[in-house]
Amino acid sequence: MGLMDKARDAAKKGADMAQRGVEEAKTTGEKAMVKRKATAVAAELGDAVYRQRNGEAGLEPEVDRLVDELRSLRAELERLHAEDAPA
């Protein structure tokens, strides 16, 4: 194998490693975003339930919406974790 072949292989390996790093960073960023959204929705849900327990009427649709949204976000987070898991 000539010097040019070795240089080409080294460059390809470097590019592959860089691409993997970019993909990992993207997934980590997505996870952080989903976690922040889930935390915010959970806080909204807690507030709605608190208001409901204190006698405010008509909050059932809001509570249902927030529960559905939180379920969706948690499922998305599980999906992202599963993608990271070694095969």
Principal-axes geometry comes out as rod-shaped
Note the run of SSEs as H and E: HH
| Low-pLDDT regions | none
| Beta-strand percent range | under 5%
The secondary-structure class comes to mainly alpha
Largest sheet: none
**Could you report the average pLDDT, rounded to the nearest whole number?**
90
CA gyration radius, whole angstroms: 23 Å
Please tell me the total number of domains. 1
Helix content: over 70%
Strand element count: 0
Q: With helices defined by DSSP (H or I, 4 residues minimum), what is the helix count? A: 2
Please give the oligomerization state of what you see: single chain
Distance separating the two termini: 33 Å
Write the layout of secondary structure elements.
Elements: H1 3-53, H2 60-84
Helix pairs in contact: 1-2
Would you kindly provide a written description of the structure presented here, covering whatever features stand out?
There is one protein chain. Helix content is 87%, strand content 0%. The chain has 87 residues and is mainly α. It has one domain. The longest helix is centred in the first third of the chain and has 51 residues.
